[in-house]
Amino acid sequence: MDTAFELVDVHKRFRLANGDWNEAIRGVSLTVRQGESIAVIGPSGAGKTTLLRLLNLTLRPDSGEVRINGTDPSRVKVRALRRLRARTGTVYQQHNLIPSLRTVHNILAGRLSSWSILRSLHSLISPREIGSAAEAARKVGVLDKLWERTDRLSGGEQQRVAIARALIQNPRHLLADEPVASVDPSRADALITLLRELNESEGKTIVVNLHDVPIALRHFPRILGLHAGRVFFDLPPGEIKADLLMRLYEGDEDMTEGETRAWIDETMKGSLAG
Amino acid sequence: MPPDWSVWDVLWRASLETLQTTIAGTFLGALFAYPLGVMAASNWTPPWIHLPVKAAMAFIRSIPLLILALLFVSAVGLGPFPGVLAIAVHSVGVLGRFVAEEIEATDPRPLLALQGTGASSIQVIQHGLIPQVLPQMVAHLAIRFEMNLRDSTILGLVGAGGLGFYVFLYIKQFQWEKTGVLCLAIIFLVFAGEFVSWQIRKRLI
């Protein structure tokens, strides 16, 4: 089967405001096959968002290799790099839409890579390809908001606009960073189900960062545990036990050990019940 | 002492000159302020570009408009042209700073998201940066226009044309009836400018 993403010993660090270095990713090797669906879990600061940005090619690794469908993006010209980026649609935690634009423009932003500068400028004045924008909006259930300013939409609606923007790219791979963090629980399942349907019916590769471990265990056949910038485990959900999760979330700044233990117990019960 | 409306002709010509000076000066200034403002934005250019540009704009702002007008009058002669130049230069200092600050305050995450879809750098600016800053830019331009209009009514004091020139002339000749009429015109013009600017900003925000 084709390889969607291949990471070989990837390192990525950032300079902090105080001048120190933060090693976000420390030697990750990972192979994701085309059409696979993976949930990435781990404590905050484990490097999940950095990993996603390495996969969608908006970050370059400091060392190691990232390949998309067998192509090394560091060896191609700008135009080819843009085409590679267009293969992957990304849904961000903060949605990252342009608040002052109408929904239709934010959705159509997913088409920019195939438009000339003149065409994209024209579209800002009178939107092009309204049909496909409407189709994407319908798929995620924001068709009635197509002509509203994006900042007038609720958080949940904005998130669906962000998904529509990724869909209209017609990407081979779909990445999502904490897509259910700002959504109520009843909608969270529906959202993940939507992503999984795109995976199953259209063969899109799905990589989703999740804080919500029960949802990850319930919906995804492969779970990647990330800890301090390294792959801590890479297992099917059936093989993930409470003590493994305990060690994964050990030292999470947001929780004391007792809280972590109680949360994991709850999580395991929840995932068995679900 | 009733106002002397025989100055109607002068009033009309001078008001028009003041208005034209303001419009020409503001837009000439904006023409340079936008690119310079982008250069002065610390999140878009390296320090060796944005620091000197910022410093130059601060220097311009520190010179009072009347002094600028005085300099240009001695450089290019009397009339509205030095007024246009003075207003333009002053606007570069003030508007450029606003442009830089607006760009520095933009959220970089939507821009990264656009880059991630495969958009080119120009498309990222076009679709991500400009829509984020445009309403504020237009609002600043409207305010600048309003303030420049007020400032340019007195540019005539140093010989840079417009209503101020005649106000100064009639004061020197003790023709208070005519001076009064011109002062009324200044008040009306400044109010009209504020009204236009307010209407524009009301529709934007």
Walkthrough of the structure:
The complex is a heterodimer of chains A (about 270) and B (about 200). In chain A, helix 5 (about 130-140) crosses helix 6 (about 155-170). Chain A has 2 domains: about 35-60 and about 75-85 and about 175-274, P-loop containing nucleotide triphosphate hydrolases (Rossmann fold, 3-Layer(aba) Sandwich), CATH 3.40.50; about 95-170, no CATH class. In chain A, the strands form 2 sheets. A 6-stranded mixed sheet of chain A has the order 5-6-7-3-8-9, sandwiched between helices. A 3-stranded antiparallel sheet of chain A has the order 2-1-4, with helices on one face. By secondary structure, chain A is an alpha/beta fold. Chain A has helices spanning about 50-55, 80-85, 105-110, 115-125, 130-140, 155-170, 185-200, 215-220, 240-250, 255-274, and strands spanning about 5-15, 20-35, 35-40, 65-70, 90, 175, 205-210, 220-225, 230-235. Chain B has a single domain, classed as MetI-like fold (Orthogonal Bundle). Helix content of chain B is about 80%, strand content about 0%. The longest helix of chain B has about 30 residues, at about 10-40. Chain B is elongated. The model of chain B has no long low-confidence stretch (mean pLDDT about 90). The interface of A and B includes residues 97, 98, 115, 124 and 169 of A.
Write a brief caption for the model.
The complex is a heterodimer of chains A (274) and B (205). With 274 residues, chain A is an alpha/beta fold. Helices cover 39% and strands 23% of the residues of chain A.
Produce the secondary structure layout.
The complex is a heterodimer of chains A (274) and B (205).
Chain A: E1 3-15, E2 21-33, E3 37-41, H1 48-55, E4 63-68, H2 78-86, E5 88-91, H3 103-108, H4 117-125, H5 130-140, H6 155-168, E6 173-177, H7 185-202, E7 205-209, H8 213-219, E8 222-227, E9 230-235, H9 242-248, H10 257-273
Helix pairs in contact in A: 5-6, 8-10
Chain B: H1 8-39, H2 47-62, H3 65-76, H4 80-104, H5 108-116, H6 121-152, H7 163-172, H8 176-204
Helix pairs in contact in B: 1-4, 1-6, 1-7, 2-4, 3-4, 4-6, 5-6, 6-8, 7-8
